[in-house]
């Protein structure tokens, strides 16, 4: 089956994260190890000696090994591949905004319009250490950093992002997602030219409002819900929204001139129940979309096709006690958080349903859930769509998310020169920064809100 699938999650430190989907009804858990998928996981491709050097891709520039590169420090003794790291100013002028920061960094290599936020390190730490992305690239296991390789690969940001700023004319005709959804598996395996290779190391900390005094004028903020704003709960409807959170988000939205959207796998009806105020939102992983109160959704055939499959799934899940079927507008989710022993059966069932539905739908693995979604739906496409419209256009996208479904959003945000923040420990990720928990996200947002109120 060549239906596009998202990458399997490694069975890493996040016990809530699910693995890849099995479309093979005949092979249950016994057929392979736990966490092993019928599909290959996203592969991190490195250039190996002996193979012809890969062609230069947009944003990734092969440079002959050994040739000095302006703006790079020479390799240090502890860097096995001798890749060198990008030099960055040790100290940034206090109060430099996103744009100043980008320009300051860009001045070191590649010009002012070729540097993305991913090149900087967020938070405190040893100032002599290179930024996270560069530091990760010096690891022996980094995708583009191998001892003995003949070319070194330098991520120089997107050539088509003047000033690194997202543009209202976000180039839908360029890059891996071409304005629509593209599964991370493909992007990662081919080395997404827009986002650079996935960074396998632990990402840095997110910025504090003090570092970005102009955040309210510059950012477009996108927030995932489950596992990001809210702690996960045993069942979809058992989540608890902390008092005051919706008001805090409204304050932020106001501070941002309206450039804040909730981007969730939840349907808009859930989003509005948890966060009253009809915020801008992408619901059901982008299948529903709302800007300034105006909603758009996929054409009716999507729901008709799903209606034809619900009976099969209901019959199947009825035989799996504890498994929850969550029908949503334009999508269906099957949760096995309360009955993880049925994981293989749920995946098998979902795989059969996906085959019946055909290429208009795709499977999406999440945290102890498997979902059937319209093939074109994805958080990356939803964020890109917001970024093409006022008040988002011209701002720097910042996206906070936790799950596999959010990687698609991280890729787009990175490509637009923005900031991607992953919640929790799940690896690998394209996110540049990290917050440990939803509580930490809420604290971070509170810091931003307090800052914006002081400014206004
Ligand atoms: O994109 P998100 O906002 O993160 O939504 C993703 C899915 O969230 C919900 O499921 C997840 O959260 C539940 C409540 O904590 C949890 O019980 C479940 O195991 C998680 O997968 C929601 O029910 C789904 O519809 C969303 O797609």
Walkthrough of the structure:
- The chain has 456 residues and is α/β, with parallel strands linked by helices.
- Among the domains are: 201-295 and 377-455, HAD superfamily/HAD-like (Rossmann fold), CATH 3.40.50.1000; 299-375, Trehalose-6-phosphate phosphatase related protein, domain 2 (Alpha-Beta Plaits, 2-Layer Sandwich).
- The protein has helices spanning 98-106, 132-137, 184-190, 215-218, 245-255, 268-274, 301-318, 343-357, 379-387, 404-415, 438-455; strands at residues 60-64, 72-73, 85-86, 151-155, 219-223, 260-263, 280-283, 288-291, 294-296, 324-328, 331-335, 361-366, 369-374, 396-401, 419-423, 433-435.
- It has an 8-stranded mixed beta sheet with strand order 9-8-7-6-5-14-15-16, with helices on both faces.
- The termini are far apart.
- Residues 1-201 have low confidence and may be disordered.
- It binds ligand L263DTV3.
- Ligand L263DTV3 is lined by residues 224-227, 232-236, 239, 264-266, 326, 328, 333, 335, 337, 366-369, 371, 403, 405.
């Amino acid at each position: 089956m060549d239906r596009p699938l998202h990458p399997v999650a490694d069975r890493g430190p996040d016990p809530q994260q699910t693995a890849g989907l099995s479309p093979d009804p005949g092979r249950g858990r016994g057929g392979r190890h736990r966490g092993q998928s019928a599909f290959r996981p996203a592969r991190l491709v490195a250039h190996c000696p002996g193979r012809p050097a890969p062609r230069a891709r947009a944003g990734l520039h092969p440079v002959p090994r050994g040739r000095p590169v302006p703006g790079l420090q020479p390799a240090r003794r502890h860097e096995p591949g001798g890749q060198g790291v990008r030099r960055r100013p040790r100290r940034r002028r206090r109060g430099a905004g996103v744009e100043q920061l980008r320009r300051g960094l860009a001045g070191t290599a590649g010009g002012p319009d070729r540097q993305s936020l991913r090149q900087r390190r967020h938070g405190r730490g040893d100032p002599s250490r290179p930024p996270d992305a560069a530091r990760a690239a010096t690891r022996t296991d980094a995708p583009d950093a191998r001892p003995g390789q003949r070319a070194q690969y330098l991520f120089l940001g997107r050539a088509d992002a003047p000033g690194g700023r997202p543009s209202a004319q976000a180039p839908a005709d360029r890059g891996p997602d071409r304005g629509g959804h593209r599964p991370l598996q493909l992007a990662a395996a081919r080395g997404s030219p827009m986002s650079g290779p996935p960074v396998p190391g632990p990402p840095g900390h997110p910025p504090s409002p003090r570092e970005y005094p102009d955040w309210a004028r510059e950012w477009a903020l996108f927030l995932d819900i489950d596992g990001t704003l809210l702690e996960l709960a045993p069942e979809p409807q058992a989540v608890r929204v902390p008092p005051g959170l919706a008001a805090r988000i409204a304050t932020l939205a106001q501070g941002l001139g309206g450039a804040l959207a909730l981007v969730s796998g939840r349907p808009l009806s859930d989003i509005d129940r948890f966060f009253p105020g009809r915020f801008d939102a992408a619901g059901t992983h982008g299948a529903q979309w709302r800007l300034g109160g105006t909603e758009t959704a996929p054409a009716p055939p999507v729901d008709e096709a799903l209606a034809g499959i619900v009976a099969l799934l209901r019959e199947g899940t009825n035989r799996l006690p504890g498994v929850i079927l969550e029908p949503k507008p334009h999508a269906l989710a099957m949760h096995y958080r309360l009955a993880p022993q049925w994981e293989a059966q749920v995946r098998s069932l979902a795989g059969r349903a996906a085959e019946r539905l055909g290429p208009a739908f795709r499977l999406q693995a999440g945290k102890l859930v498997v979902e059937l979604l319209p093939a074109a739906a994805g958080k990356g496409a939803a964020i890109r769509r917001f970024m093409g419209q006022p008040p988002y256009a011209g701002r720097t996208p910042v996206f906070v998310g936790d799950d596999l479904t959010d990687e698609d959003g991280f890729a787009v945000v990175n490509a637009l020169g923005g900031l991607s923040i992953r919640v929790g420990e799940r690896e690998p990720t394209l996110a540049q920064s990290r917050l440990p928990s939803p509580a930490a996200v809420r604290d971070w947002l509170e810091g931003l809100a307090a800052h914006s109120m002081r400014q206004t």
